[in-house]
Write a structure and sequence with these properties.
This protein has a domain of 62 residues. Helices cover 55% and strands 0% of the residues. It has two helices and no strands. Helix 1 runs antiparallel to helix 2. The chain starts with 28 loop residues before the first helix and ends in a 5-residue tail after the last helix.
Length: 92
């Protein structure tokens, strides 16, 4: 993100559509990292019952951040974003 001089703040407009590095494997690597940290804390705290929170967290992230971000990118980068979505999955 720094290399492309664009924001990683969810509700700000992106200056570039980053498709290199980790963004080749996931359209949302930062959110994926958040999910992995949550899973790690749950396992570290030996609270496997709390794993039910993971899909709830995924749903919440998607509804409150990802859909709006992708909509902004879709409107700004149109065909480039469509090609990116076709070749890169949302999570992995």
């Amino acid at each position: 993100m720094r290399k492309w001089r664009t924001t990683f703040i969810p509700h700000k407009e992106a200056a570039h559509l980053v498709q290199s590095g980790i963004f080749r494997r996931s359209r949302n690597p930062i959110y994926l990292g958040d999910v992995l940290v949550l899973i790690g804390f749950i396992l570290k705290l030996d609270a496997p019952d709390a794993l039910v929170l993971v899909p709830i967290f995924l749903w919440w992230i998607e509804r409150h951040f990802i859909l709006a971000e992708e909509d902004r990118l879709r409107r700004k980068y149109r065909a480039d974003f469509a090609r990116y979505c076709a070749k890169t999955r949302r999570w992995l």
